[in-house]
Amino acid sequence: MWRYRTGSPWRDLPAEFGPWQTVWARHRTWSEDGTWDRIHTMLMGQADAAGRVDWSVNVDSTINRAHQHGTNLPRDTGGATELQQSAPGVA
Questions:
Q1: Helix locations, the chain, DSSP H
Q2: SS3 (DSSP) at 72
Q3: Is the pTM of this model over 0.85?
């Protein structure tokens, strides 16, 4: 949780957490086997039962546009497709 709160890379974990590789491996295992999901569900259930969860939803109409190169979708420009090949004799 410290890493997500600070935004630090795995290699910058404080020494008291142990080797970063061990922490990363445990986090990955818990993510894959659903441990984090079960922990989240349990904590949300406890908080909701205690009346500490506000289930109000706010919707914002802000639009965030991505640059045309910021997508991985194919784009049909209507032009001919050219093959990029090396010049003869060039490996």
A1: 2-6, 20-33, 35-49
A2: coil
A3: no
